[in-house]
Amino acid sequence: MSKPIQTQAPVAKKKAHELSLHNDTRIDNYYWLKERDQQEVVDYLNAENEYTKSVLGPHKGFQDQLFEEMKGRIKQKDESAPYRDNGYF
Fold it and tell me: Is the pTM for the entire model greater than 0.85?
């Protein structure tokens, strides 16, 4: 049995953080999300991931099909163009 679809997307809390540089000050309400080692951030990101899985889950087969099609259009041994370095290519 599949999980029920989570209909409410998680909403990140706004925590005002003032950033000043070159005599310009701005407020970043989501600066706290950059602290990836904090449990609150990890919990929020896990909630976002679960919501995404619940919404896109029914389309997993189609996503896989699209991925394989895109992968099939890309040369698997992709190399950069040769360039001269110290007399050698």
Answer: no
